[in-house]
Specification:
single chain; about 100 residues; alpha+beta; 2 helices
């Protein structure tokens, strides 16, 4: 489960992410879509614990990444079945089973 509450990330005067709220239940699929400079990469880095938000909280599996990052990294990632895709339908898509 992923929970992002009131997350803002600033780099000096530049605001990369502003007051983001997101909840993704366990087992759900989601994607970040948006134009360049929308904050997608910054948000993903915060979800991975590579950056911390200037304001707000980021939780993965119920663990706050700022204070419980070590515990979050110990979470067991369960494999999900890949969706079968016909090559002719999506010639440039690579299906990865995590």
């Amino acid at each position: 489960m992923i929970e992002i509450r009131g997350v803002t990330k600033r780099y000096g005067p530049k605001v990369a992410v502003s007051d983001l709220n997101l909840s993704v239940p366990d087992g759900e699929l989601f994607a970040f879509l948006g134009p360049n400079g929308a904050g997608k990469t910054t948000t993903i880095k915060m979800l991975c614990g590579l950056l911390f938000p200037t304001e707000g909280t980021v939780k993965v599996g119920g663990y706050d990444l700022r204070t419980q990052g070590d515990e979050a990294r110990q979470l067991e990632l369960r494999p999900r079945p890949a969706v079968p895709v016909r090559k002719a339908q999506w010639p440039r898509v690579l299906a990865v089973h995590l």
